[in-house]
Design a protein that fits this description.
heterodimer; A: about 290 residues; 2 domains; B: about 325 residues; alpha+beta; eight-stranded mixed β-sheet; four-stranded antiparallel β-sheet; 14 strands
């Protein structure tokens, strides 16, 4: 697979179809994966592809406005590119998307704690990865290996349902405890391809929408606001939770909103580049029971 | 071992007993492992929770001295007059146990900034004065540790009141300060000369076991304008993980909130780090911000205080969402 990838990237750079390709490479420690910015044919040799290529690289695309960029993308990354296209953050003609057929990536945090069960070590997001194939890539590099199958009875919202079943006071207590650890490093925001506001609500000072301090008010407001801004936009790449250094289960909050959006509007983000963004359109059938 | 140090050897049981008895007078803070989250410094009420094993806390001990958000003072109206109200400083005594040697060195470096002649930060100094630091030497530094390249060691006792080193099933306690002497003096037995010798050679061996070594140049003057910074900062996502988790980063931002003045951590990676009220930002691109981080640590601070502002703990590498590696960046800096 990786040889095919390298050949494709060399070809793209040689033909000047793109100025830069963003992919993955091995770090100097020989284990970790780091983003790779390939600008010449020679550097294509650095590219790698395996289950450790976790990062969603589509967030880097906004750094190169007006340039023709190639990007190595998995299924989840493709969905985020779709949303960025829907929201006019990217120009399709400036992109060359190299889709890597993905059978799931590793969850390094779990790898550390559950060394026995290889299956568990795949990121949770991969288990419920929508099987519907997106056809927006310019080229697809196929994986000849055996596909991992999602069990038919797999319920991606199971943890959410469990949480919903709890009393509101219990839920509040759980999240207050989780958010009490938040150090406000904003890694969740910075790593998120959808968080591209030039000035984040958390940075505004006039007015300041919530406390900048690591207190309950500030932490709760920040985390809830972040999640709400992703309603109908989060494509479940799980990067926020992966990047969080203190281990807050951020994906669960996004997942809850994803579930609500699906139940209320039958909408799933990132599945069609032609569709209008959920909150950019209006339908008479939209639920309105909240208007009293 | 420094002059006037005392070496004791004891069992985990006896050490635990002493710590339990100290719970009456001190808050004991130490590393606790939280499943699927990592290791964190927590207030310990049950000594069973104390994590004696390998691994490093996610957050450094810094936060107990330089709070992520500190209320400095409060403004109020009194008889039509504005008045400033000081907030009371906490006075409870604390023992932080399980501090890694690199983090204690980090505090010694912060002392140079917050306890510098006339510039005394009363919040920081109050926290320093009310805290006893008991270190835990590192048996297994991980692949991101590079303390020996920046003047530290897995056995360093600098900045600590006492240092515990696990040896087999026992612990050797190096008692460094008078206040630690008051606590640990009665513990276990003294080491005999033979044991002291053995322990010394074991220390040396462990220091040598750190594979990740980098070269740190005297200054980086020549490469300020280098294209190198553009190249190495490309993958930076501009979050605050590296600075907030760094045991020595101490930049802060002052914020007014509800008539209180709040001092919060700030980080040079953030886009608005040096954003001025006029809208100008002298470090608008991440190249400039990342360069600032490297220069502050390995150039500016050294010019002011003759030391690097980095203790080689590896946190910024371990927790960077895209695994940027400051050690490698410094090591490979194209000096001319």
């Amino acid at each position: 697979m990786v040889d095919e990838l390298k050949a494709k990237v060399r070809e793209l750079l040689k033909n000047k179809q793109v100025e830069l390709v963003i992919g993955y490479q091995r770090a100097a420690d020989g284990v970790s994966v780091i983003p790779c910015f390939v600008e010449n044919e020679k550097d294509a040799e650095l590219l790698i592809w395996d289950a450790y290529c976790v990062y969603n690289l589509s967030g880097y695309l906004k750094d190169y406005p007006g340039k023709k960029i190639g990007i190595v993308a998995k299924d989840c990354d493709l969905r985020s590119i779709v949303v960025l296209l829907q929201e006019n953050q990217l120009k399709r003609e400036n992109l060359f998307i190299i889709e890597m057929e993905c059978h799931g990536v590793i969850d390094e945090k779990r790898l550390k704690y559950d060394t026995q069960n290889q299956e568990i070590n795949f990121a949770q997001k991969c288990k419920g990865c929508p099987s519907a194939k997106l056809s927006i890539a310019d080229c697809v590099i196929k994986d000849k290996g055996e596909k991992r199958k999602t069990p038919d009875d797999y319920d991606e919202y199971e943890p959410i349902r469990k949480m919903e079943a709890k009393a509101i006071s219990e839920r509040l207590k759980f999240w207050q405890e989780e958010f009490s650890r938040c150090i406000r490093c904003y890694a969740c925001r910075q790593v998120c391809p959808m968080c591209y506001c030039p000035k984040c609500v958390a940075e505004q000072t006039q007015p300041a929408w919530f406390s900048k301090g690591t207190n309950l008010e500030g932490n709760l407001s920040w985390n809830v606001t972040r999640a709400m801004h992703l309603a109908g936009r989060c494509i479940d790449c799980g990067e926020c939770e992966r990047a969080c250094p203190v281990g807050i289960p951020l994906r669960d909050i996004n997942k809850k909103i994803q579930k609500d959006v699906q139940e209320l509007f039958s909408y799933q983000a990132g599945l069609s580049a032609e569709a209008k963004p959920l909150f950019a359109c209006f339908d008479k059938k939209d639920p309105d029971d909240f208007i009293k | 071992m420094g002059k006037g140090c005392m070496l004791k050897i004891t069992t985990k049981e006896d050490l635990t007993k002493i710590l339990i008895s100290l719970l009456n007078d001190f808050e004991i803070i130490g590393p606790k492992e939280l499943s699927h989250k990592g290791i964190f410094y927590e207030s310990i009420t049950d000594l069973k929770d104390l994590h004696w094993g390998e691994g490093f806390t996610t957050e450094p001990v810094k936060k107990f001295f330089l709070s992520p958000s500190e209320y400095l003072f409060k403004g109020r109206y009194e008889n039509g007059q504005e008045a400033l109200e000081e907030l009371p400083l906490p006075g409870n005594k604390r023992i932080i146990i399980g501090v890694r040697p690199c983090e204690a060195i980090g505090l010694s470096l912060l002392d140079k900034v917050f306890n510098a002649g006339e510039d005394q930060d009363k919040f920081y100094l109050n926290n320093r004065a009310r805290t006893i630091l008991v270190g835990l030497s590192c048996l297994k530094p991980d692949k991101n540790c590079f303390c020996t390249s920046v003047g530290g060691s897995p056995e360093s006792s600098r900045g600590l009141d006492a240092l515990i080193s696990p040896v087999g099933n026992e612990f050797i306690i190096e008692i460094i300060t008078e206040r630690a002497k008051g606590i640990f003096e009665s513990l276990g037995r003294n080491l005999n000369q033979e044991e002291v010798k053995l322990w010394g050679s074991d220390k040396k061996r462990r220091e040598g076991s750190l594979n990740f070594r980098i070269k740190v140049s005297e200054n980086l003057d020549n490469i300020f304008e280098s294209e190198y910074w553009e190249k190495v900062s490309k993958s930076c996502i501009s979050c605050g993980v590296c600075t907030f988790l760094c045991p020595t980063c101490h930049c802060f931002d002052l914020v007014d909130e509800k008539r209180k003045k709040l001092r919060c951590y700030d980080g040079c990676a953030f886009c608005d780090f040096t954003l001025e009220a006029s809208g100008t930002n002298p470090r608008a691109a991440r190249k400039e911000r990342y360069r600032q981080r490297v220069f502050h640590k390995f150039d500016y601070f050294k010019k002011n205080f003759q030391e690097n502002l980095c203790v080689g703990c590896g946190r910024c590498i371990r927790f960077c969402p895209v695994k940027m590696n400051i050690a490698e960046v410094v090591d490979k800096a194209p000096l001319v």
